[in-house]
Amino acid sequence: MEPEHLDAEGARLGRGRSWLVLGVVLAVVVGLVVLRFTSQEPDVSPRPAPRPMISASATSHTWPADLPPGLLLVGSAGRVYAVDSRDGRVTPTRVPAYSSETSMTSLGTGVLVWGATKRSRSVVMSDGSVQPVSGALRTAAAFLPGPDGSVWAAEDPGSRRTTWRRVDADGKASTRVSVDGDAASDGAGGLLSVTDAGFRSAFPTSSRARQVGDVIATGPDGYVRRTCARGECRFTLHRHAEEPDSVLSTAVGEDTTGGTLSPANRRLAVTETVGDTSTLRVSVVGTGQIDEIFDQPRGSTRDAVWLDDRWLALISVDQLMLYDAEDDRVVVPAVPLSSLGPLAWRPA
């Protein structure tokens, strides 16, 4: 009987060694997997701002009676339409507009509608009439808002160093400004020189050196600058009145593609795009409080414009909307328009 006892014991020892070897192999495999994932580079890709829980805004379809007077211009199905802010009356113009190819820039008492082709340029006046362009307005390749009702015009904005000319409503050019890199509007009629190293004011000239970061939102009284380092981003508000910049406590994501500041820098509307999803976030500059979030499928930065420091006009889910930031209400007027964009505002 003794040999049988030894065989059973040997079998148990063999099975124990097998389990021991299997455990060692599993430990090595798990260790290699952990090492592989922990040795990867940290994710430093742009991160969206968290979507906060906010109460639903009151919604109506009645055209508001307390909008500032003026004309809202909106591209729709290949044409520019003029919407009277007094009563919401929609009037078609003969000016063509295509959302991906058309831009609108304030000029004089109207809005210059322009695109890549120089043949389809016109000025829609504040009364809804349309006027042709002449002079530098006809020959320039790109435009940016200028001071006192003028525009900045460039012949070849794609070169490393570009000359921008100040042009009035009659097409007459005057002041010339040379800009390194790309040119951008500062929101108040000035020009910013933008390069990989940062940006600086090209007009008016400033004692400030080139600043690091990029400008993500502009308004008539300031702009918002973003600076990022080691995966963290900070946002500061620059006031055109030359006051010290202030750090913003606002839920702005690192993947912000552009935005606009209301007059007096009271509120900020920024577009954030993550993957195929874009949202427009409206917040209070002083506190960072999120007022409202709108879906913007195209992620366009030209689909929102402040009418004053209270009302924001925007395009969301292919609808024209008006947002009252003071009373937190959304107006979705029953206007017969589709395939919307871009959007512009001309005060009366």
Tell me the layout of helices and strands:
Elements: H1 2-38, E1 58-60, E2 70-76, E3 79-84, E4 90-96, E5 102-107, E6 110-115, E7 122-125, E8 130-132, H2 136-139, E9 142-145, E10 151-154, E11 161-167, E12 173-180, E13 182-185, E14 191-195, E15 198-203, E16 214-219, E17 222-229, E18 232-239, E19 246-247, E20 256-261, E21 267-274, E22 277-284, E23 290-295, E24 304-306, E25 311-316, E26 319-324, E27 329-331, E28 340-347
Parallel strand pairs: 1-27
Antiparallel strand pairs: 2-3, 2-28, 3-4, 5-6, 6-7, 7-8, 9-10, 10-11, 11-12, 13-14, 14-15, 16-17, 17-18, 18-19, 20-21, 21-22, 22-23, 24-25, 25-26, 26-27
Description:
Keywords: Membrane, Transmembrane, Transmembrane helix. The protein has 348 residues and is mainly beta. The protein has a domain of 198 residues. The chain contains two helices and 28 strands. The strands form seven sheets. It has a five-stranded mixed β-sheet, with no helix packed on it. A four-stranded antiparallel β-sheet has the order 4-3-2-28, with no helix packed on it. The longest helix is centred in the N-terminal third of the chain and has 37 residues. The protein is globular, with a radius of gyration of 28 Å. The N and C termini lie far apart (112 Å).
SS-based class: mainly beta
Amount of beta strand: over 45%
Order of helices and strands: HEEEEEEEEHEEEEEEEEEEEEEEEEEEEE
Spans where pLDDT lies below 50 across 5 or more residues: 1-22, 28-46
What is the CA-based Rg, rounded?
28 Å
Side by side, the strands of the main sheet go: 1-27-26-25-24
Shape, per Cα inertia axes: globular
Number of strands: 28
